[in-house]
Design goal:
154 residues; mainly alpha
Length: 154
């Protein structure tokens, strides 16, 4: 059971890494909306940062979450009769992954292509769409965090 506590710690750290995207996103948006200069380098840096942090957070959460469910005999995958909080977390994680693969990744690719073609209007429109979708994902990650923290009270 010693590995289980390590997994829980890594799981919590991955949540923190993913939530940093939710903190950094609005800060970068505020800088970009100030319109002082083109900020092309800032956009490229932010896309790389969000990509790396998103991969670390999402893959880390997914792998450690699956490992914790497999290691703990009280938990299971989509067991609706027990651990309703865990089933809710698992369903929310599926929605998060769907949003990442169907919305965030394609929109980020559109932002990169618009940056290469130097189309500022398209870049800003896609950045706005990317920011809104990313904020929804971060809210869902926070809901999952709150479900885990409040599981003893349910």
């Amino acid at each position: 059971m010693g590995y289980y506590n390590t997994l829980v710690t890594i799981h919590i750290l991955c949540v923190g890494v993913w939530i940093t995207n939710g903190i950094a996103g609005p800060m970068v948006k505020k800088i970009l909306m100030s319109g002082k200069d083109s900020n092309r380098n800032l956009i490229i840096f932010f896309l790389k940062y969000a990509n790396i942090a998103g991969m670390i957070g999402s893959i880390g959460l997914l792998l450690t979450g699956v490992a914790m469910v497999l290691m703990n005999p009280a938990y299971g995958f989509f067991q609706f009769s027990t651990n309703h909080w865990l089933v809710t977390k698992q369903l929310i994680m599926i929605v998060i992954l769907w949003m990442v693969f169907s919305q965030i990744i394609p929109t980020a690719k559109k932002v990169r292509m618009a940056l290469d073609s130097e189309n500022n209007e398209e870049t800003m429109a896609n950045l706005g769409k990317l920011g809104k979708t990313a904020q929804i994902v971060i809210i869902l990650v926070i809901v999952n965090l709150l479900l885990a923290l409040s599981r003893n009270y349910m």
